[in-house]
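Today's session is about reading a structure prediction critically. Students often jump straight to the picture, but the first step is always the sequence itself: look for stretches that repeat, for charged clusters, for runs of hydrophobic residues. Only then move on to the predicted structure, which in these notes is written as discrete structure tokens rather than atom positions. Here is the chain we will use throughout the hour.
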Amino acid sequence: MNTTNRLETAVKKLYIAFHNNTLHPECCKHCAVGNILDNKDSWKHLSDHHGAIQLNYLGVLHQNLGRKFNGYSPEELLKIEATFLKACGYTIPLHHKNKKPKNPTDKDNLFNGLSEVIKLLCEFDNIPNMMDYTKLFEVENGKPKYKLQTL
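Below is the predicted structure for this chain, in token form.
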């Protein structure tokens, strides 16, 4: 499957964070966007609240100037983070009164979050969802309809 550099780089970073147990939804350096941006939290200044999808003044300024952060616009970064948090079981934006999972670093929750993020990243780049394995199980005349592609 052909991918873009930004997608491939982002997925690698998220994969490493997931398997190294350094992915944490509530930490701006270790959430989905924090990992995509090399564990820096400067992106949090693009909105007023973690998980918000509304750009603040600084976010709008960067968006209007066409700035990209590891290939992603400020608007895309906020969508990535909101998607991750929602899929992990949070009500956004993050607030101590809002719903959140009992164990934020539970592997199942993180996997759900990453699956949705990767789906979104693929949509951004007009690439079929690389997490969709349903075609592997499609059958035609009693045989697999598609061949499994390996690296």
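Discussion point for the tutorial: The chain has one domain: 5-144.
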